[in-house]
C-alpha cells in the first residue's frame, strides 16, 4: 500500500489513526482493508512502530466483565480504521442514513454472516432490535400468545426469573421448575419436568450470566404446537446451536457479539403476525421482520460492530472452532478452581457449568477485596461477582484470549500460595 499522504486535508488525524491502528497489533495481523478513496494508509511498521505496538497493547487490560464485555482486538482496530471514513463513503457509519445503500449493505452482510454462523434456515427471521433482552421478556409473550394463554418457564437463575415475572403481565406463565431454593446451581433432568401440554411456549435462559449455569442440551415442549424459547444473551455465538430446535432465540449483543444497544431475535416466521392488540409497534416482531429491522432508526453503529464480530468469527473457522477455544479456556479455569483444595470453589454442578461465566468464591472470603485489588494491579479487571451473589466471576466470552485466562489462573495459584 502507498504511504499516507501528509498533504491530504486530514493528514494529522490520519497520522494519528495510522499510529494507533498500526501500532496496536503485530504487523501480520493488522487489518489493512482501509479502502478510503482519497488516501491510503501504509501498513508497514518501523522499529519505532514496533515499540509502540508494545506500549499500546500494554494499555489494554484483560476485562472479565459480564457485559458490556471485552471485544476482539482486531475488530476494534478495524472499526477504528473505518471510523472516520467508512469504505471511502466520506462519512462514518454513525453518520449514515439507515436507509441508504451503504448501511443496507452493512446490515445485510451482518445478517448473512450470522445466518452462516448459526446455519439459520430461511424460515426464520433475523431481527436487530433495541431495548435489550429485558424488552424481549415482554415482547416474547406479547408476540407468541394471547392474554389467557398458558406458558412454561424453567428457571435456572435470576434472568429466567425476571423473564417469568414480566410475562405475568401478558399471559398465564407457570414456573415448572426453579433452582432458587438451591441457589441456582443446576439444570433439572428433563424427564421429571411437569410440562403443561397446552403451553404455547417453554422459556429457558440458555446461560444464566450471574450464576454460571448453562444448558448443554435442550428440553422439548410437550405441546406439539408449543415452541422452545431461549434467552441466549450470554452464550450467543459461543458454540454451534441447532436453531430449528427453537421457535425463538433472543440475545443482547453486549456479551459476545458487540456493544450494548443491539438485541438480536431469531424467530420462526410462522410464529409472526399474532401479536396481542396492546403490543406497542416497537415490540411487534412482524413489523420489524416485514421491514428488515428498518421500521424505525435501528442502532446502526452497534449493528455494524456486530457485523464485524460475525465476520471475525467466520474467519476463525465458525462456531465449531470458537467452541473449541471456549472449551479450552473454561477447562483450564475450572481445573484451577477444582484443584485448589477448596481455596477456590465453584458451586455449580459440573455437568452444567457455563463456558462463558465462571463464578467462584474464596474459602477465606475476607481475602476477596485483596484478590480483586491485586488482580487489578496485574491488569485483570471486573472480576467481582454480581452484587446479588458476591464472590468472584470471570466472564470469558469469545473475545477473551486464552492468554487472559492463563494469566488469571497463574495469578490465582500465586495468590493461593501467598495466602493458603
Ligand atoms: N438475560 C441475560 C442472560 C443477561 O445476562 C442479561 C444482562 N446481563 C439480560 C437478560 C438483560 O439484558 P439487557 O440488560 O440487555 O436488557
Explain what the structure shows.
The protein is α/β, with parallel strands linked by helices and 420 residues long. The protein contains eleven helices and 14 strands. Strands 2-10-9-8-5-3-4 form a seven-stranded mixed β-sheet. Strands 11-12-14 form a three-stranded antiparallel β-sheet, with helices on one face. Strand 6 (207-208) and strand 7 form a beta hairpin. The longest helix is centred in the C-terminal third of the chain and has 20 residues, at 319-338. 44% of the residues are buried. Mean pLDDT is 89; it is low at 1-56. Residues 67, 132-134, 159, 205, 209, 231, 233-234, 252 line the site of 4'-deoxy-4'-aminopyridoxal-5'-phosphate.
Q: Topology, pairings included?
A:
Elements: H1 11-23, H2 47-59, E1 62-63, H3 73-83, H4 101-118, E2 124-129, H5 132-144, E3 150-155, H6 158-167, E4 172-178, E5 201-205, E6 207-208, E7 213-214, E8 227-231, E9 248-252, E10 263-268, H7 285-290, H8 300-315, H9 319-338, E11 344-345, E12 357-362, H10 368-377, E13 380-381, E14 392-395, H11 402-419
Parallel strand pairs: 1-13, 3-4, 3-5, 5-8, 8-9
Antiparallel strand pairs: 2-10, 6-7, 9-10, 11-12, 12-14
Helix pairs in contact: 1-2, 1-3, 3-8, 4-8, 5-6, 9-11
The structure holds 4'-deoxy-4'-aminopyridoxal-5'-phosphate.
Amino acid at each position: 500500500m502507498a504511504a499516507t499522504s501528509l498533504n491530504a486535508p486530514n493528514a494529522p488525524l490520519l497520522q494519528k489513526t495510522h499510529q494507533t491502528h498500526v501500532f496496536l497489533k503485530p504487523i501480520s495481523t493488522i487489518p489493512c482493508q482501509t479502502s478510503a478513496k482519497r488516501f491510503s494508509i501504509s501498513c508497514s511498521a518501523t522499529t519505532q512502530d514496533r515499540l509502540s505496538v508494545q506500549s499500546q497493547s500494554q494499555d489494554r487490560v484483560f476485562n472479565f466483565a459480564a457485559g458490556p464485555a471485552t471485544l476482539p482486538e482486531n475488530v476494534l482496530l478495524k472499526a477504528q480504521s473505518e471510523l472516520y471514513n467508512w469504505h471511502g463513503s466520506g462519512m462514518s457509519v454513525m453518520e449514515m442514513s439507515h436507509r441508504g445503500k451503504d448501511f443496507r449493505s452493512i446490515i445485510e452482510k451482518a445478517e448473512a454472516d450470522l445466518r452462516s454462523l448459526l446455519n439459520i434456515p430461511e424460515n426464520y427471521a433475523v431481527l436487530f432490535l433495541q431495548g435489550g433482552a429485558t424488552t424481549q421478556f415482554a415482547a416474547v409473550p406479547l408476540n407468541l400468545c394471547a392474554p389467557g394463554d398458558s406458558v412454561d418457564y424453567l428457571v435456572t437463575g435470576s434472568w429466567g426469573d425476571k423473564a417469568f415475572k414480566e410475562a405475568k403481565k401478558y399471559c398465564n406463565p407457570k414456573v415448572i421448575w426453579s433452582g432458587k431454593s438451591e441457589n441456582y446451581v443446576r439444570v433439572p433432568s428433563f424427564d421429571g419436568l411437569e410440562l403443561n401440554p397446552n403451553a404455547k411456549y417453554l422459556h429457558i435462559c440458555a446461560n444464566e450470566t450471574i450464576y454460571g449455569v448453562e444448558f448443554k442440551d435442550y428440553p422439548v415442549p410437550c405441546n406439539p404446537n408449543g415452541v422452545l424459547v431461549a434467552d441466549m444473551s450470554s452464550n450467543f455465538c459461543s458454540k454451534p446451536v441447532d436453531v430449528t430446535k427453537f421457535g425463538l432465540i433472543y440475545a443482547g449483543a453486549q456479551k459476545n457479539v458487540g456493544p450494548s444497544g443491539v438485541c438480536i431475535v431469531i424467530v420462526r416466521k410462522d410464529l409472526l403476525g399474532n401479536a396481542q392488540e396492546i403490543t406497542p409497534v416497537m415490540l411487534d416482531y412482524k413489523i420489524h421482520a416485514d421491514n428488515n429491522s428498518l421500521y424505525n432508526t435501528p442502532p446502526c453503529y452497534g449493528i455494524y460492530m456486530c457485523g464485524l464480530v460475525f465476520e471475525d468469527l467466520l474467519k476463525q473457522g465458525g462456531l465449531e472452532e470458537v467452541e473449541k477455544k471456549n472449551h479450552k479456556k473454561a477447562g483450564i479455569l475450572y481445573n484451577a478452581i477444582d484443584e485448589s483444595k477448596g481455596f477456590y470453589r465453584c458451586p455449580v454442578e459440573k455437568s452444567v457449568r457455563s463456558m462463558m461465566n465462571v463464578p467462584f468464591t474464596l474459602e477465606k472470603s475476607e481475602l476477596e477485596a485483596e484478590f480483586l485489588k491485586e488482580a487489578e494491579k496485574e491488569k485483570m479487571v471486573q472480576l467481582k461477582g454480581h452484587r446479588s451473589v458476591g464472590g468472584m466471576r470471570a466472564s470469558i466470552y469469545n473475545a477473551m484470549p486464552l492468554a487472559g485466562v492463563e494469566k488469571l489462573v497463574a495469578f490465582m495459584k500465586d495468590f493461593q500460595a501467598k495466602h493458603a
